[in-house]
Amino acid sequence: MKIEKNKVVALSYTLYKNDEKGEVLEVCTADKPLQFVFAKEQLLPKFEENIANLEEGDDFDFVLESKEAYGEHVDDAIVDVPLEVFTMNGVVQKDILFPGSQIPMRDNTGRPITGVVVRVDEPNAVVIMDFNHPLAGIDLYFTGKVESVREATEEELTQGMNHSCDSCGGSCESGSCGEDESDCGCCGSCH
């Protein structure tokens, strides 16, 4: 059976940063594969394009350039956020304000986003946050195998399914795609 719209696909793969010699970012094994319903806009479009029409047992390897994956790193996505935003019950939550801390937030339209603390500038009462996707500016090299392809059930088509593998903490980097799939960064998943 070929990978096509509304088929449930299971893939094992290794994801490398930039090319086959790059840092390993993620591994999904045959016993805990990435599983998803194909063509349900859960995965990066170019990822799906590269596996379309493959069959169970087929191997694959391809590169998604950063512009086809999570985009280029954008300097304008690094912003000063007023320190008061991190106040709860009148107290600044300093325990979460350290470089590298990923903080779930909402943009000015209410859409969930994740920001990474770059640094805290207490004299100016701001937190410098990076709202670029963690994989922005990085080419993604995938190599793997199609483990299975089958018809999706009616429930899978209407309710979707968890499309994650265990190597990324049970699902995408933030714990799950949740409300905002653009926050996810692994499994070639989310957009």
Question: Could you characterize what this model shows?
Answer:
The chain is built from 2 helices and 11 strands, in the order E-E-E-H-E-E-E-E-E-E-E-E-H. Strands 1, 2, 3, 4 and 11 form a 5-stranded antiparallel beta sheet that branches. A 4-stranded antiparallel beta sheet has the order 5-10-9-8, with no helix packed on it. With 191 residues, it is mostly beta strands. It is elongated, with a radius of gyration of 19 Å. It folds into 2 domains: 7-70 and 136-183, Chitinase A, domain 3 (Roll); 75-130, Thrombin, subunit H, CATH 2.40.10. Helices cover 7% and strands 35% of the residues. The two termini are 26 Å apart.
Count of separate DSSP helical elements:
2
Q: Would you identify the CATH architecture of the largest domain?
A: Roll
Number of DSSP strand runs: 11
Uncertain stretches: 167-185
Query: What percent of residues are in strands?
Result: 35-45%
CATH class of the largest domain: Alpha Beta
As a percent range, the share of helical residues equals under 10%
Global mean pLDDT = 88
Helices and strands, in N-to-C order?
EEEHEEEEEEEEH
The CATH topology of the largest domain is given as Chitinase A, domain 3
Cα distance, first to last residue?
A: 26 Å
Helix/strand-derived category reads mainly beta
Largest sheet data: 5 strands, antiparallel
Gross geometry: elongated
Supply Rg.
19 Å
Counting structural domains, the number is 2
